[in-house]
Write a structure and sequence with these properties.
Bound molecules: iron/sulfur cluster
Number of helices: 23
Radius of gyration: 22 Å
Strand content: 5-15%
Largest sheet: 5 strands, mixed
Strand order of the largest sheet: 1-3-2-4-5
Helix content: 40-55%
Shape: globular
CATH class of the largest domain: Mainly Alpha
Number of domains: 4
Length: 429
Amino acid sequence: MSPAHSPAILQLAFRTPYANTLRIPPLPLSLPLHQQIDRCVMCGICSQHCPTYALSPNENESPRGRLALIAAINQGQLTPSTPLFEHLDHCLGCRACERACPSQVPFGEIMDQARDLLEPHRPGGQHLGKRIGHALLGHRRILRTALTGLRWAQKAGLSKAAGGIPPIPANPKWQRYYPPRGKTRGKVGLFLGCINETLGQDELRAAIRLLTCAGYGVHVPPQQTCCGAMHQHNGNIHAATGLAKQNLRAFENLQIEAILHTASGCTVMLQEYNKRVKSPPAQANAAAEFSAKTQDISHFLDTVQWPEHVQFSPLPVRVAVHSPCSLKHVLQQTAAPVRLLGNIPGIEPVELPDNGHCCGGAGSYMLTQPERAARLREDKLDALHRTQADILVTSNIGCALHLQAGLRERGREIEVLHPVTLLARQLTL
Ligand code: SF4
Ligand code: SF4
């Protein structure tokens, strides 16, 4: 967004109620970030792909408008205010705009940097719940203890969990290493995640079972921690970088060909550690190697040659396949789960008709913007209903929880699974 463009683009921002605060000190974005915003040519192609613009056709609710707001702050034309934060907070971080952009504006990175810059200036300070949440996610032992407490509260009937949280299972125990069954084909590392380690333990176990059956030894380093995505997307890049470095140490010195994960949202974060850790050089190299090795579990399993003794029993049902934004717009691997399920004889996988739009789960969005998240989910559940599917599969724990909650509200009895959970269930071994 060059200076020549600025007056025009600022007109967009000036239509907002906070346009009366000119000539304030700018909040300087880093030069590389400023150059990234500068790549925007204001064509508006991104807007037709933006779910928040579809909800509210207001320029400030579009990717182009949000870039204009960030640029205006950077130039000292706007001050951080409640309405400004609302427009930025409404962004789902789905990155549909980034994928559609012909100028390759790195919207996700720009938003993360802007939030990091702006968070200390949030009117009223940062929400206490957000601070506590970030602290919990980054401390695996404390998080596991908190989940155990929540589980007991649920069992005692003390917590209805606001209707959104499903019954919490017991915290799992993992071996450091799961040896392959039969002939060894290689070794991989498994990333557990934070909440996912407990709420997504079925898919993690399924991944281990499928990988070991396919001939892979699976390392599960106990020192690993949260990927840092929640911190990064909520204005705390420093904390996200610290968690990234801890994960680099946890997986270092393992002779593995891939680092695999079952939640595509976190997989994106892991795959972008090279953007987060840039110094010192040794850690930057480790981050680049870590990023290059990271893969979504379905994508990896889709490439393996199943040994002859591995068979899957038939399942003649229709399965709707939901594509999380992280898998669709960033990893761009939506075909892998569909192909993987094709290993099950008789199964009929169908892609959800409106897979291009976010379901509203979007990390912590379903908690911080519940009404908007529910509105986005309605379209998705209507689309699911039209498929007349018996099972819904999705590759991201956040989407699964959000969609499950919506189905419960509607009184629909459709099972929501990860693709690898369904595949492992059909193993005949
Ligand atoms: S598509 Fe890209 S260049 Fe066009 S307005 Fe959106 S961000 Fe800017
Ligand atoms: S990340 Fe998604 S919600 Fe945010 S501006 Fe881009 S398309 Fe819209």
